[in-house]
Design a protein that fits this description.
Radius of gyration: 24 Å
Order of helices and strands: EHEHEHEHEHEEHHEHHHHHHH
CATH superfamily of the largest domain: NAD(P)-binding Rossmann-like Domain
Strand content: 5-15%
Structural class: alpha/beta
CATH class of the largest domain: Alpha Beta
Number of helices: 14
Bound molecules: NADPH dihydro-nicotinamide-adenine-dinucleotide phosphate
Strand order of the largest sheet: 3-2-1-4-5-6-7-8
Largest sheet: 8 strands, mixed
Number of strands: 8
Distance between the termini: 64 Å
Oligomer: single chain
Number of domains: 2
Mean pLDDT: 94
CATH topology of the largest domain: Rossmann fold
Helix content: 40-55%
Low-confidence stretches: 300-307
């Protein structure tokens, strides 16, 4: 099927959970013909009321249009849903959250079935989808030709962000950012736990905490500069040796406040471990912890460029 009289590309959408339904509303509101399918029937009501066609099977939905968007629970559900579909000549866009390896394997799987493949990682919750300036974005990776050809349609529910031809990169960016978010949530949890039993209003404390975290996000750029330059001691203002010396204060404060330190202790352990890896490690900041995580500590200790 080709574009409608308004020039809008028709879309097939598999999966009408919270996210799929939000995507469907956005395309319909923008005038795109939409054919939908969901494993459990009866979830398309609101979309069909707005003009969506409902397919009786995933294979039937896939047959309806060239551009096929999948937003299901996980990679296994994508395989199950598309098992009987003819993907020959299709442009498959998979917005299901997966691992990078699953995305790469799914790309090969789709190409073997005659489809072009684009993977996506959604950085938004459903109420942000299709809402201008809400901040929703989707990382994409895989077929650049597919991305370019359908960019206008893909940009309807959320801003698009290209991460590369490696089909695993969208998922990798997605999970990397969400992992950083959970680390931040862990820190926020510990901070609120510390004040929990005191006469400190959490509502008054929140903006103080939020402003501090915002100021500290510059650290991402600092770490990137160290990683790309290789000298982890360059421009360091908070030396690792100083920070490790401060750890007992953090642990004692947690004990005084009756708070478990369990969210902090794994990170403190890595900081201490890094300090033992070489003579220059104490002059670094915290970038060396990254090498400990990937098991990439160069022989002789820190990466100062010195022998
Ligand atoms: P929901 O749990 O609301 O919906 C899951 C969807 O997957 C339903 O349509 C469900 O069908 C379908 N499904 C599950 N298992 C199978 C299967 N074996 N075969 C076919 N269909 C199956 O999830 P969301 O819509 O919220 O999320 C969808 C994707 O979007 C996920 O990968 C999620 O990580 C991602 N995402 C979600 C966000 C959110 O905030 N909701 C944010 C960012 C990404 P049925 O109705 O039959 O159960």
């Amino acid at each position: 099927m080709t574009a409608n009289s308004h020039g809008k590309t028709p879309v097939t959408l598999l999966g009408l959970g919270a996210m799929g339904t939000a995507l469907g509303h956005a395309w319909l509101a923008d005038g795109h013909p939409l054919t939908v399918w969901n494993r459990t029937p009866g979830r398309a009501g609101a979309l069909t009321a707005e003009g969506a066609e409902t397919a009786a099977s995933a294979a039937e939905a896939v047959a309806a249009h060239r551009l096929v968007v999948v937003c299901l629970l996980d990679d296994a559900s994508v395989g199950e849903a598309l098992a009987d579909a003819d993907l020959t000549g299709k442009d498959l866009v998979n917005l299901t959250t997966t691992t990078p390896a699953e995305a790469r394997a799914r790309a090969v799987w789709a190409q073997e079935r005659g489809a072009r493949y684009l993977d996506g990682g959604i950085m938004a919750v459903p109420p942000m989808i299709g809402v201008p300036d809400a901040g929703a974005s989707v990382f994409y990776s895989g077929s650049r030709a597919l991305f370019d050809e359908h960019h206008e349609t893909l940009a309807v529910p959320a801003a698009t962000s290209w991460t590369g031809e490696d089909p695993g990169f969208a998922a990798l960016h997605d999970i990397a950012l969400l992992s950083a978010m959970y680390g931040m949530f862990a820190g926020i949890s510990h901070a609120f736990a510390l004040i929990r039993r005191e006469d400190i209003d959490p509502v008054a404390f929140a903006p103080i905490l939020s402003d501090w975290l915002t100021a500290m996000t510059a650290e991402a750029h600092g770490k990137a500069r160290h990683l790309s330059g290789g000298d982890y001691t360059k421009g360091v203002v908070s030396r690792l040796s100083m920070q490790v010396a401060g750890i007992p204060t953090f642990l004692a404060t947690a004990e005084e406040q009756g708070v478990s330190p369990e969210l902090l202790t794994p990170y403190f352990a890595l900081m201490r471990q890094r300090l033992t890896t070489g003579p220059d490690a104490g002059d670094e900041d915290l970038t060396g912890v990254i090498d400990l995580l990937v098991g990439d500590v160069p022989e002789g200790g820190s990466r100062t460029g010195r022998p």
